[in-house]
Amino acid sequence: MAQNIVDRRDQPTPLCAQCGKVLPPDGPSPDFCNESCQQWWYAKRSDKKAA
């Protein structure tokens, strides 16, 4: 079902967990704007766990 534009406007704009850019509607993930950001984010997390 199509979402009402007023309801959609009131929702927060989704941002990339790595770089903070607005996520594209057809992006590869609901959390990251591209695969590179996803890889960097996971690499940073794994480095912290190893320390």
Automatic annotation (TrEMBL):
Name of the protein described by the UniProt record: DUF2116 family Zn-ribbon domain-containing protein
